[in-house]
Amino acid sequence: MTQHRGHEEPREESEPRELSDAFDPTQVSGPAATGFPFTSGVDPEALRRRALDALLAARDRTTLLTDSVDDGELTAQHSPLMSPLVWDLAHIGNQEEQWLLRAVGGREALRPEIDGLYNAFEHSRASRPSLPLLAPAEARTYASDVRGRALELLEGTPLHEGGGALERAGFAFGMIAQHEQQHDETMLITHQLRAGPAALTAPAPPAPPEPVGAGTVPSEVFVPGGPFTMGTSAEPWALDNERPAHRRDVAAFHLDASPVTCGAYLRFIEDDGYGDERWWAPDGWAMVREHGLSAPLFWRREAGQWLRRRFGVTEPVPHDEPVLHVSWYEADAYARWAGRRLPTEAEWEKAARHDPASGRSRRYPWGDEDPTPERANLGQRHLRPARSGAYPQGRSPAGAGQLIGDVWEWTSSDFLPYPGFVAFPYREYSEVFFGPGHKVLRGGSFAVDQVACRGTFRNWDLPVRRQIFAGFRTARDA
Prior knowledge:
Blueprint: H1 31-34, H2 44-67, H3 71-75, H4 85-104, H5 136-156, H6 171-193, E1 220-223, E2 226-230, E3 246-250, E4 253-256, H7 262-270, H8 282-291, E5 299-302, E6 305-310, E7 313-316, H9 328-337, H10 345-353, E8 408-415, E9 435-442, E10 459-461, E11 470-471, E12 475-477
Parallel strand pairs: 8-11
Antiparallel strand pairs: 1-4, 2-3, 4-12, 5-6, 6-7, 8-9, 9-10
């Protein structure tokens, strides 16, 4: 039996990034002074209903993720890369209190003494178990109390264009719903890292592949060259790094029609991909050598068969699913081995959003309508990627599928601001992460809710990260 060390996560001095986590109400910046471009003409009551639905959906998911294990599992740290689940729970409530009750509602602080405990920029994840955190029952009570007051606030807050920067178009409420769903994804990662039996079950069966005879799915699609509109100035809850909309010119290229599958990645492994320095960036090769990596995280070879651990269950690696839990370095090495490359962020977005017939950029690959279960694998419905070729209704005009949901997709691009970027509502959301240290991921994953996933949404992380729900697709020049 051959064992690999792929489940030994490479350590970095830098923490995994936190999302919307450092807040000082006196430091809100952006639209009030700079004309930050919010959508005009949006029905405030429709946005109010949408915010309510998004907040309730997020709390349902948080409850499932935290009620599915006992108090010991909630307070344990299952990996130094992740917080105890109980920290995430109280942090969700604390951010909601600070942004909604205090900043929007102008209310007195409920628990000002805990602000520092749940400020991610003050305490590393590895140090959080040693803090005097709220116990599970107290954390649940606190988060529930905040939520009840926040829903009352939502009901009475004007969301019209003349309102304050945080209230306008319900931005603060949408941001908090996104923040909670982003932490729900983080907590799902913790569930994947924890040892012991499975605690979660998928609420829906796996999505079916494209029916046989419904049309041939090509291995790659062609994306014509030319300009397109990247980013957005119209999406009411878009975050600062998605803004503003701007023209970008992209040369013609070919892109994988679907993310790279486990079966395709196995060919890279079997061709000694992890043992051949030619394919690796220098830092990636150093990571492979230092940690003895030979396969994606959670994979192992046993009795001549490749197996993976998924939420406490060991199963054969499915050859027809997108490969998951690979770092940027692994994605880049595979692409080099295959004689291809990772797409740039602009290429990815053009393939996902540009409609050559109209010349405009869509909200999603299929159009402007919200995601549905027939279009994308989102919301932790399946707890795994769908098989390659699934969701034909979700394809882009270029013919590429599974661009939204299933797996986050590494791109070759560094995380940088768009031309005309304005930090809002504070610098620490995006601006402090700009630079060559972080690589951009696009498209979302099965773990992401639709409120935190759209054609313009930008994720970013360190290139060593393997615990995230990330895969990739490759490209080549035309």
